[in-house]
Structure formats: structure tokens, C-alpha cells
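job 3f2a | input accepted
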Amino acid sequence: MDKKTIRKQYKELRQQLSEDEVEELSLQIANQIISLDIWDKTYFHLFLPIVEQKEVNTEYLLQVLAGRDKEIVVSKSDFETREMTHFLLTANTKIKKNEYNIPEPIDGLEVPVSKIEVVFVPLLAFDKMGNRVGYGKGFYDLFLSNCKPETLKIGLSFFEAIEAIDAVIDSDVALDFCITPNKIYQF
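job 3f2a | predicted structure (187 res):
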């Protein structure tokens, strides 16, 4: 299936979820992550969900990370360069939604990409080879391509893997894992 069709189909599927379903499925995803062998790492990059797009609510995962004394990193996007600047999430971090309803830090202590060891990646859909479809702007592919090769890339999805995504290109960065409410995929 081509990316445009997948993007449309999975946006529609997500919009059909009730708020309660989004919360329950998000909690199941966070509970799945607890069993991953990632807890020796320190710096975890987490996306803050776009509520209007019914993205996975990462608040549960945030609580797990904070409870394990992990350094949590969140990003601010530059829509002209498609680059992201990464900041340490602290008690003093002020979060504000940008024009696309993406919650972002206003400022803070910047964290270099080289320090990030685990990235939780937002997505609309993924396939059995670890390829993902996002919103199509390429922010995460650019960010992930600048991470160290050993940085773990973990997708979070309400839905199970599709067979294959057509027309995967060289700049698409594949996932190492994808977590759904019912399954952990490893690629």
C-alpha cells in the first residue's frame, strides 16, 4: 500500500477511537514497554502527543520514565528547516502548543542528539519490516538519521503491523521496535 493511502486510512481509524479508548490503549502500550530491555539507558526522547490527532498519550510512559529516574528529552520543531531542537524535560519546563497543536518546550536545557539513547517515535502505521508512515513532513527521519547508530528507535502504535509499505526511500529510517497494546514487534 502506498504512503498517501496508508496515511489517510490510519488517520481515519484513529479519529474513530473514543477518548476512553485512546487512554486505555495508551496505558496498555506503556505497560508493554516495561518489559523491554532498555532500562540500562539514561536519555529517552519522548514525543508529546497531539491530542487533536488522537496520538498515543505518552503521559503514562512519561510517568514510567520519571519513576525510573530517566532523563526525558522533548523537542521543538522548526518547520522551515524540518529540524528539531531537543530539551531536557524538567519541573521548570514550560510547554506550549505550536500552530499545529504540537506541545513543545518554550526553552530549556538543550540536549545534543549524541546523548539520546532511546527515541519513542510517533507514527500512523508501520509494516512488518519496521518501516513507518508518519505525517509526511520528514522531521523524525531527519532526526533519527542524525542519531547514533545504536540509538534505539521505538514506534508506538494503536494498530498492528501492515504487510508492507510501498516506495520506502533511502531517507526513511526504520524502527528497531514497535509497541502496540497487544504486541511488541522487533525488527
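job 3f2a | Helices lie at 3-15, 19-33, 59-67, 139-145.
job 3f2a | closed
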